[in-house]
Design brief:
The chain contains 4 helices and 21 strands. The protein is mostly beta strands.
Length: about 300
């Protein structure tokens, strides 16, 4: 159940240290940078973990209840005029280049307070998106029906792939229900890969979903055919951005492919912990149907697997 937390008192009344009294300007882009603007709602949605009701890898049906009430971020057009795409797990991927600022308008369409907390980018305490009890600043408590605009800076040390997620009063449960997404920050003028896929590896547990078993997921889906199927062609640049979305250790293995780790070593099975990220990137040269999966076998067998289809 949702944790109901009252709105914090005004910061000025609650402040117990001089750092709590600091005031900050809203950042603007660096020379040559731009404002990247997003309109995001946080709301509940009915979510099916295995919409095809089959495990394509093992050619078996998936039985039992698979639908629960998830909590997701959704992208809208400017001014929240219309929903831009269906609710998704993870939420929309937010992108920027070094020198830009991200201006993220968040509307809370749920019945409890939420926030949006980023990793990797630079922000002032007002835009941290973290609930801190009576020391909570502006962006740390978005009540039901309210809106807040975050402003984050894409600095040179922000280059990479990072998670964002709820960090409000009920953050742990909300994150496990699906209130998370990814940021991609690129060097100025960098061309994105031809094929780019964000994957969160995470479990949907019975005490979160109310279902009868634990599901091991890529992006809120379990078992090949339900998890994202990625298509590429020989000669294309391909990038999988893979993040840990729960409290477990995971790794990411792609059959028939190798890539360079951050240390410059060739790998085909990279490990990471909670909310860490790896990028598996290569120029495609191996056509066919390939598996990707977590090589923690209990995760793999619980549904954490998918297809990479490479055309000649």
């Amino acid at each position: 159940a949702a944790t109901r937390v009252a709105r914090p008192r005004a910061l000025a009344a609650a402040a117990s240290d001089r750092v709590d009294q600091l005031r900050f300007a809203t950042p603007e882009p660096q020379p040559g940078g731009v404002v990247r603007e997003y309109w995001i709602t946080a709301d509940t949605t009915s979510w099916d973990i295995t919409p095809r009701r089959r495990d394509d890898w093992m050619d078996m049906p998936v039985r039992g209840r698979t639908r629960f009430t998830a909590f997701t971020y959704s992208e809208w057009t400017t001014g929240f005029a219309a929903r831009k795409r269906k609710p998704s797990m993870p939420g929309p991927t937010l992108q920027a280049e070094v020198g830009d600022v991200l201006r993220v308008h968040v509307r809370n369409a749920a019945t409890q307070a939420i926030t949006m907390h980023p990793h990797g980018v630079r922000y002032t305490p007002d835009y941290d998106g973290t609930y801190m009890g009576e020391r909570t600043r502006a962006g740390g408590f978005i009540g039901p029906g309210e809106e807040f605009t975050y402003t984050w800076e894409a600095t040179p040390d922000s280059v990479g792939v990072w998670p964002y997620h709820d960090h409000g009063p009920n953050h742990s449960l909300n994150l496990l229900r699906g209130l998370f997404g990814a940021l991609i920050i690129r060097p100025k003028g960098t061309k994105p890969p031809d094929v780019e896929q964000v994957l969160f590896q995470h479990a949907l547990a019975p005490n979160v979903t109310g279902l009868d078993k634990q599901w091991q997921c890529f992006n809120g889906r379990a078992y090949a055919g339900n998890t994202p199927t990625v298509r590429a062609r020989v000669g294309q640049s391909v990038a999988f951005h893979v993040l840990g979305g729960d409290a477990a250790y995971h790794n990411f293995h792609v059959h028939g492919h190798r890539w360079r780790s951050a240390a410059g070593v060739s790998v085909d099975n990279a490990g990471f912990g909670p909310h860490e990220a790896i990028t598996a990137q290569w120029t495609e040269d191996n056509p066919g149907r390939w598996l990707y999966h977590c090589h923690v076998f209990s995760h793999q067998d619980g549904g954490m697997a998918g297809w990479l289809l490479v055309d000649p």
